[in-house]
Each structure stands twice: as C-alpha cells, then as structure tokens.
C-alpha cells in the first residue's frame, strides 16, 4: 500500500478556506487576478478548444472552469473534498460541465494513463511532500505529444521577501502560513524533475506583481513566481 503524497495540514488549510474560493476579494484574490494571464499563456501555446485537459490540484476550480469555457473537456482533481464541492457547485451555477474527482495525481495516473492532451498543475508542487512524484504522475497522464504546465515559487531571498513576508504579512494578499519557504522549488530543480519524468522542457515564464499598481504581469523574471511548459515526446 503506497502512502498518499499529501500533507494533511495543507489539505485542511485549504479546506477551511474553501467557501471563500470564488470570492474575488477573499484570500484567493491573487488566483483570480493571475488566472487570465495563465489561461492565455496556456491557450496560446496549445489551443484548448476540443482538448482533453486535467487540472491537478484544481482547488475550487478557477483555472479548470476557465479552460472549460475555452472549449476544453476538463477533469479537475484534488484531495480537498470541501474545495471540490465548492468547485462542483460553482460549475453548476456557471453552466460549465466539468468532471471533478477526489483522487491523487499518482492514483489518477494509474487509472487513466496517457489520456489527456493537456495537464496543468498550478501552485501545487510547493504544497506536497514529494513534488517529483506529482511531476511523474503528470507525465504519465499526458498523451505522447501532449503538453504539461507547472507553476510554482522559486527558492531564494527575493522570493522569501516577496512571496512570504510581502504577500502574507505586509500586503496581506494571502493568509499567513500559506507558504512554507523550505518547500519552494528552484527552476533548476524543477527542470531536473521534469527531465527525470521523461518530459521535454520547452519554455519558462515569470509572473510578477507590482505592489504600486497592484497589477500582475507575465515576463521573463522567474525570481519569484514562474511557470513552465513541457511536452511528452511523441
């Protein structure tokens, strides 16, 4: 019996906030604000219309729902039952058809290997005990020739100051304790894990927040938040 690659405290933390997931002025406001940027970046790289997509660690379904609205057939998986209930309810209200399932990435990879054109795993790797295991699972779920997208936080002094001290304590963009700096992942580490999982790294993009204008933007600065696009060789 394999042990579940999840931190119960992390699941509990997000479950307690689940009812606020779709409130754009809540603790999840940053997710609402960066979602259009992420969505367009993914959609430009691989047009989502008509694609089978799985969102790993989907939470309340912000990204999953927006990909479904682009015409994708979307599955969202998470281990927080409360978050999934919120996601399910919101998709009904929005009239968007999404399959939500309480299952780990590793279990899903065994159940449905090579079934998806696109796999997204955003802001999740820094919340699990073994991120490399999730990356391998994502690589197994995607079809040969398909795309996998990850986003996470870099580990350095700047990211500690911006993502923990700045975002959680000074600007209060996120609840205190959202992030554990020790679990942040450098681009070099993520690139290595991706290659070890049999994926080819295609490109990397930074995501920055300007506290003066209160605007997020995509750029080449990967020092704090960053995203990567990978492909499973065909």
From TrEMBL:
Keywords recorded for this protein, A-Z: Methyltransferase, S-adenosyl-L-methionine, Transferase, Ubiquinone biosynthesis
Residue numbers binding S-adenosyl-L-methionine: 38, 57, 78, 122
Record's catalysed reaction(s): a 3-(all-trans-polyprenyl)benzene-1,2-diol + S-adenosyl-L-methionine = a 2-methoxy-6-(all-trans-polyprenyl)phenol + S-adenosyl-L-homocysteine + H(+); a 3-demethylubiquinol + S-adenosyl-L-methionine = a ubiquinol + S-adenosyl-L-homocysteine + H(+)
EC number(s) recorded for this UniProt protein: 2.1.1.222, 2.1.1.64
GO biological process, any: methylation
EC class name: transferase
Residue intervals passing through the bilayer: none
GO molecular function: 2-polyprenyl-6-hydroxyphenol methylase activity; 3-demethylubiquinol 3-O-methyltransferase activity; polyprenyldihydroxybenzoate methyltransferase activity
HAMAP family named among the record's database cross-references: UbiG (MF_00472)
Protein name from the UniProt record: Ubiquinone biosynthesis O-methyltransferase
Primary gene name: ubiG
């Amino acid at each position: 019996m394999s042990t579940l690659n999840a931190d119960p405290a992390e699941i509990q933390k997000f479950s307690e906030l689940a009812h606020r997931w779709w409130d754009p002025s809540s603790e999840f406001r940053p997710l609402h604000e960066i979602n259009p940027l992420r969505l367009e970046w993914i959609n430009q790289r691989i047009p989502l219309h008509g694609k089978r997509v799985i969102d790993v660690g989907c939470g309340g379904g912000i990204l999953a729902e927006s990909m479904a609205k682009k015409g994708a057939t979307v599955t969202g998986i998470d281990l927080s039952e409360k978050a999934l209930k919120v996601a399910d309810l919101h998709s009904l209200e929005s009239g968007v058809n999404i399959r939500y399932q309480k299952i780990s990435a590793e279990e899903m990879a065994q159940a449905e290997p090579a079934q998806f054109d696109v796999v997204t795993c955003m802001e999740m790797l820094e919340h699990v005990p073994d991120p490399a295991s999730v990356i391998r699972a994502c690589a197994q779920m995607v079809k040969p020739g398909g795309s996998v997208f990850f986003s996470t936080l870099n580990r350095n002094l700047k990211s500690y100051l911006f993502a923990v001290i700045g975002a959680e304590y000074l600007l209060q963009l996120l609840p205190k304790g959202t992030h554990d700096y020790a679990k942040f992942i450098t681009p070099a580490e993520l690139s290595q894990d991706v290659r070890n999982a049999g994926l080819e790294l295609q490109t990397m993009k930074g995501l920055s927040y300007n506290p003066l204008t209160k605007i997020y933007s995509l750029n080449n600065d990967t020092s704090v938040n960053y995203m990567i696009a990978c492909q499973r060789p065909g």
